[in-house]
Amino acid sequence: MLACRSCGAELQRTFVDLGTTPLANSYLEASQLDGPEPRYPLHARVCESCLLVQVEDVVPPEEIFSDYAYASSYSASWVEHARRFAHHAIERFGLGPSSLVVEVASNDGYLLQHFRDEGIPILGVEPAANLAAVAVEAGIPTEVRFFGAETAADLVARGQQADLVVGNNVLAHVPDLNDFVSGIATLLGPDGVVSIEVPHLLRLIEDVQFDTIYHEHFSYFSLYAAERAFERHGLRIFDVEQLPTHGGSLRLSGCHAAHSRHDGSGLEGVRKAEHDAGLDCIDGYDGFAPRVEHCRRSVLQFLEGARAEGKRVVAYGAAAKGNTLLNFCGVTADAGVIDYVVDRSPHKQGRFLPGSRLPIEDPSRVAETKPDYLLILPWNLREEIVGQMKQITTWGGRFATPVPEVRVFS
Among candidates 63, 160, 70, 79, which has minimal Cα distance to 107? Predict the structure, then answer.
């Protein structure tokens, strides 16, 4: 029996089945191109009890996150987002030199640096040793370990109870959801606040963001499902903000359930939006799969049409969402419909995308080859990427984004 990772009920209802794919962040070296790639089912289901959308944890988290390719600092807009959040949190929650801010899944220190610069004590908890090393080199104290109840108890025993726990885009990556949320409840001081950012399931459904589904994302949250998960461990979501990041996200602010913090104004609006979309009842999750099929047809028609016209397509962004999209669409380097992909991260350059095996180049390669189309795979960073690559218009090149269907623009 497949059991819901939040409430334990049996999982039977399909949300969308994306077939069998490699891990979205398992980039290949040239020496690996002759061998097979492990592939795993990517089947999202919705719990008929607590309405959490989730995929099976078919891969041990150690295999995914112990050496992780995504470094947050290579997105300028994301670093700026982190800076704004830090200053907002310092003011709203009265943080100062006697406070402690702990970030779980702290990546390369992109966020904690802003608290450090304001003289606030910080600690990162990051399972990827390669990213933790970058953070430590930058002066961000970081423990290399997975976060959960055991880690939290250890930190508290060492006197490191947090006034603010931050978890940005990590809750979705947690296979043992109850262990993780229990850890937050343990780590959080009596008057402490937890701030969690998650992509909003409502936006995923409305905008057909199926490419944000991959093995490293175990769960997909509505406010409704998140509240149920927090309540189970004595935590209460007292406010929520809607953010534009990652195609539409929620910033959940939580505290101990017994705390007297007043509910913020954001809760009512998000609850109403989810109710209007039917996300508080099981039938609201039907009908997504046919819209995903329409997107696949749109992408393939665009790529095959460009090839038929002798046009060259290059992709921008060796992002996990792009790998889900390319693998679901069956795009490969051998098909000849995309020449290569570019990415600013030197950790990815010189490697190859999983599944499609497209080579990853430096963005400067675009000016050398002058493609007709630049297909932006991380469509959530569209404006940032267009600003970086606007020189393609000098030779008549155009941009394209793939979801909810292909849109071409200058």
Answer: 70
Other C-beta atoms closer than 10 Å to the C-beta of 52 total 26
pTM assigned to the model: 0.90
What does 77-91 look like in DSSP terms, one character per residue? HHHHHHHHHHHHHHH
Q: What is the pLDDT of residue 74?
A: 60
Among candidates 263, 382, 270, which has minimal Cα distance to 319? 382
SS3 state at 192:
strand
Backbone region of residue 310 per phi and psi (left: phi > 0; alpha: psi in -120 to 50; beta: other values)? left
* 289 residue type, one letter: A
Phi, psi of 47 (to 5 degrees): -75, 125
CB 373 within 8 A of CB 238: no
339 vs 70, 100, 124, 381, 385, CA distance in Å?
A: 23, 48, 39, 21, 18
The radius of gyration computed from the CA coordinates of the chain, to the nearest angstrom, equals 21
Q: What is the tens place of the pLDDT at every residue in 210-239?
A: 999 999 899 999 999 999 999 999 999 999
pLDDT digits (tens, 9 = 90+) for 263-304: 999 999 999 999 999 999 999 999 999 999 999 999 999 999
Residues 6+ apart with CB under 8 A from 364: none
Give the residue ranges of DSSP H helices in 94-144: 112-116, 129-137
What are the pLDDT digits (tens) for 129-158? 999 999 999 999 999 999 999 999 999 999
